[in-house]
């Protein structure tokens, strides 16, 4: 077996095949195993957390259920204090507060409570809280949460930390808000706000974090907007979770789990509904992938050992049997990659006198030929585009020019100086844009060119056609190939209105369609026969298509249409082009599309202009 075959066989046997097969298999197997195992464990954990958290809030709901039906609450609601709270008799106030506290103090999680009375819009404090001033009822009514509380009709509304700090304060506590009704009439009499301490919730999460001590897990309570209301590590409180993930999380009541980046760290992110009735809250667990994958250390050592054996075996073979050939091949591959990236100046160094020199010379020769060929093709394309532009510029037919001059002469003989000036100005504008060296001009300039052409033709064929222009002003600043609209309109006049006995009509319109500009040229002429319409194949070069001459004018027809189609395709690519829809006896609609490109401020051609 020859040395190249040995090198290829050894490389494939000892390196490529084992690395690809082993690496791929182990990666898929181990990753899926860890992810599936943890996903099941995380689901059980989050569902248990959901029940525990729901129990904490449910207990508080039961406490306030019994509180709002108590005599103390009803007495406070029906006792219409007409003075400010500070002016109420201290003993009377202390009695009311004591009654409240008798109802709520038994629950260790309650940290603060007060109530708005609706009849006099007063604030009745149940517990005092330092450095916190309750929001006046007049401001509370303007908050979105106020209407939400009324809509619950006595059912509690839970507000998390940082959701409404102006109402609940800046402490990281959860607040229950609910309507209190009169027992006798069931009318809304007040609104009760009760804040609970985080100790109960923290004890729940502390227990589950201890149970998962083999992995680094962080638990969050997140609302529907992504606001982190509780973080078991206390690092992300008050932040938005979308700031720490690349792809926004889908938060709903179903269990979801996946691997991704969280705060720049590879993690397994799991989420589920928090289990709190009517609140759009979610439990999210963040587990470090590094901590989860630590258990596969044994597998990693086996993989490293096998890979090391394969690499050492391959290196031994290359060093003692084919070192120089391997280096030459690697060097050749390196230069091939440079050529693939577009570096056509890359050349292999010529060293030695064996077969590798032939390989290097062949590679260098190939790259040189490819470079020359690409340069030639690029130059040929530029020449082709320039020639096509020149051909289009030359399409101002002699007959049209002679007829325009003859019309000016007739006006001069008739001593109609104003019309002579108008015709000369239009012809000058037509020639100025036609001979302009720039390939692309603004839509506004192209429209000026078209109006000059239509003005001359309208004078010559006043009874033959009329026209309508409908191009929005906001399109005028975009760029387009010059001499695009005029050849298509010229085709309508020469071909569409040939032999008609009614007034022809041309409509030119334009609009934005997504990221492209679309222009429409419509006429009510004689239409195009199906066999000729089928011949409009714009994938063929314009030079390969034969055109017929008009028996009336002796001018070539259809050249402008093909020219426009070819130029659009070459300039902008196959995504853009010209499309024709026609029916005999009804008329023709031509549409062409170009990319929407803002020219900024395209300088107007001023050469030869005189006022």
Identify the overall geometry: flat
Fourth-tier CATH superfamily name of the largest domain: LuxQ periplasmic domain, N-terminal subdomain
Q: Classify the secondary structure makeup into a structural class.
A: alpha+beta
Overall mean confidence score, pLDDT: 78
Assign the CATH class of the largest domain: Alpha Beta
Number of strands: 17
CATH topology of the largest domain: Beta-Lactamase
Uncertain segments of ≥5 residues (pLDDT<50)? 81-93, 541-556, 601-611
CATH architecture of the largest domain: 2-Layer Sandwich
Which range best describes the helical content: under 10%, 10-25%, 25-40%, 40-55%, 55-70% or over 70%?
40-55%
Strand order, biggest sheet?
2-1-5-4-3
N→C terminal distance: 88 Å
Count the DSSP helices.
17
Mind summarizing the main beta sheet? 5 strands, antiparallel
Radius of gyration: 42 Å
**Binned strand content:** 15-25%
Q: What's the structural domain tally?
A: 3
